[in-house]
């Protein structure tokens, strides 16, 4: 329901475009930095980075956060096969 309210249609985080994802969730500088660190460490493609953001957005939704958090990025990285993120 949160996702439908955010995007105004039946679109969910797993299917939303990258542009829509960022339009509705401006990433904080610390979150951007962490994403860049993880991406560099794991040599993630752009597609993998977007997938990580989508997972992190869903985790943030489940914890009632209005924006993507560092903790959500770290958890998404672990769930996506990244082990310990940001260390």
Order of helices and strands: HHHHH
Radius of gyration over C-alpha positions, nearest whole angstrom: 12 Å
List low-pLDDT spans. none
Helix/sheet category: mainly alpha
**How can the largest sheet be summarized?**
none
Helix content: 55-70%
Sum up the structure in keywords.
single chain, 87 residues, mainly alpha, 62% helix, 0% strand, globular
Describe this structure in words.
This protein is mostly helical and 87 residues long. It has one domain (2-79). It has helices at 2-7, 18-24, 29-42, 46-62, 70-79. Helix 3 packs parallel to helix 5 (70-79) and helix 4 (46-62) crosses helix 5. The longest helix has 17 residues, at 46-62.
Walk me through the topology.
Elements: H1 2-7, H2 18-24, H3 29-42, H4 46-62, H5 70-79
Helix pairs in contact: 3-5, 4-5
Short précis:
The chain is an all-alpha fold and 87 residues long. It contains five helices and no strands.
């Amino acid at each position: 329901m949160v996702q439908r309210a955010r995007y105004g249609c039946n679109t969910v985080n797993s299917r939303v475009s990258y542009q829509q994802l960022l339009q509705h969730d401006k990433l904080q500088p610390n979150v951007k930095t962490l994403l860049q660190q993880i991406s560099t460490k794991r040599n993630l493609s752009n597609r993998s980075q977007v997938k990580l953001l989508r997972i992190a957005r869903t985790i943030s939704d489940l914890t009632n956060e209005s924006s993507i958090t560092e903790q959500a990025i770290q958890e998404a990285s672990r769930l996506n096969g990244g082990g310990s993120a940001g260390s």
